[in-house]
Write the structure tokens for this entry.
Amino acid sequence: MSKNLVIVESPAKAKTIEKFLGKDFKVLSSYGHIRDLKKKSFSIDIEHDYAPIYEIPADKEKVVESLKNAARKAETVWIASDEDREGEAIAWHLAEVLGLQPETTRRIVFHEITQTAILEAIEHPRAIDIDRVNAQQARRILDRIVGFELSPVLWRKVKPALSAGRVQSVAVRLIAERENEIRRFTAENWFRAVATFSVPTENGGTACLKAELNRRLKNREEAAAFLEACRDARFSIADIAVRPARKTPPPPFTTSTLQQEAARKLGFSVAQTMMTAQRLYEAGFITYMRTDSVNLSQLALNSARKEIADSLGERYHKARRYRTQSKGAQEAHEAIRPTYIDRHAIEGTAAERRLYELIWKRTVASQMSDAELEKTTVTIDISSRDEKFVATGEVLTFDGYLKVYLESKEEEGDGENAKELLPPMSKGESLTLSDMEVTERFTQCPSRYTEASLVHKMEELGIGRPSTYAPTISTIQQREYVEKCNFEGSERQYLTLRLANGKVQEKVKKEKTGAEKGKLAPTDTGIVVNDYLVEFFPDIMDYNFTANVEQTFDDIAEGKLDWPQAIDRFYKLFHPVVQSALETKTGHKVGERLLGTDPVSGKPVSVKIGRFGPLVQIGSPEDAEKPRFASLLKGQSMATITLDEALSLFDLPRTLGDYEGKTVTVGIGKFGPYIRHDGKYVSLPKSLEPLSVSIDDAIALIAAKREEESQRHIKKFAEDADLEVLNGRYGPYIAYRKKNYKIPKGTDPKEISFESCMQLIQEADSKGDTGKKSVRRKKNGLNIPK
């Protein structure tokens, strides 16, 4: 038996580390946390200093037993979980649950999984940092208090099954407030003047010079007057200014900047970026990926210098040390970088290769020289006006870090201000006007957040920490407070006035505005919950409060603050507000909006959040007759729906006609619009609206559903009605008594016999290799696999 047991969080990490250690070391994985607060109970003893009540989840009992057995046989146990607070808490839980003795237990940490780093860590072990453990415990306990106390308030006041979280709720607030800004926004118009001049060249030809007026024109009248004044004007070059400029490379990646840049350059979601980075780290390709530090080790600096000098020459290298600027930055690890800078590419999935390349380029660029440019500004006089036209251009004289890396921006712009190379000119030179166009422009509506820009905003405000950005954004989408949407935008008209050949022409053109892709928008439920929490729990929803809580955790981690004292101070302020909110009675449902009166019945028509989402209600609970309800359609919003739109929802379900002697109807159910025919249901695709779908559309959907069902059932057996061969998402499989079993490769599912199926089932059961139960949920009357 090995003398040394090393415990890490993940099996992938264990596999990599085991390569670097000799036969005296055995590396096992804890598969993350082995102990946590109980899932279905409060699990905090308020009366005894908020002591947490932990449990070992059922799915971790075998892991714990295996680790206990291995620990008993080892002379020394090395706990090698990550160095952040969560990793420190995992180490502490392992020591507590496994009953490890301090004299035979070592805590080791490393920022990268390389042989040098692992052996260095073993040479310099330390004790478990109880202050960091306490900071993580305080976070879990405070978040449990907020979640368990706030959620019942939402169940009672808004709708059942809702939940609230300290950081998640504030993230939803950011998105909801941006949506409110957009709804309140009114575009203001102005006019932009651009002139194109003809400049003679040395070879006898001409070159074009585009220049923009140095001020905005307020309205059409002013634009027309300006063009009229320019009709017979003379134009000449008043000044040519040439100045050098530099562009400095961005620092190496932190967690948040990696998430932002991977979204912009690679199209990755925040969660996808972190999962891919985790795999790269565990395989030993990059340093630890949850960090807010931009620092690079001396070894990395030396490696980068050698790589740049050898590949590009000394002129391209410039040693740089960066400082972390983010609000409330935690204890530093090191920036995210390749473990070996001379490794330009790796083996792996396409996502892993692309993310690694991004990290490599950013790291190398951070140690390269500035890009050098020459910026030229040409000022052009108008003989009949005081305004000036200005043309700008730039030339890259030395590419520097741009040879390797160009940073992306969240909003790249429309290219109107792109810098071009200017033709040769001299001061005092007269210019010939080719044409001048004045275009109506509009003030820009605020953009909705992408996942990347939301991370940037959260970091800017000090909300959350590197380890919490991805789970926060995933959680608010899973809870259906926020959804990722594409917005088609709308068409608008704009005016252009063009002066050419001494004549002014006016045209009305069209353009699309407001189109957005992959943006985060609040759902109606998210808006209602946010409005309620902001009104009744302003402190919890305050951005500064959330940032200050993070600072409190930092103080606990540094040993400056006692964690029960910090929790007690919060709880004594928070708990009475919860009680007050539960006791406060409102005259109507939270979020309810009165739209008007139903002309037929004379009853009030309102929109509100129901048990299954937003709905329209005709009547009130006090009426003798039961109120009528209708769910909102996809794309409709409680904030913008009109009375007419609401009343039209009660036309559903509507009859489309007959098919095969049976009535076909369309309606809206718990899970959205559907077609009903002969007692069976077919979901209506997003491309069709229930109020406009035709009988022909419905027949096509019914036929497609029948075809899909016929292909799903491959084979049944007379010997046992519970046994069936089905065609699933990942290919054919055996379904038997609510369990699924794999069919070996090379086996024809249509020809497989009853005996072969039963043998495969028995073999799988004996190995414990059974498929998951076939969980099914109701959707519009259909049993649809989850």
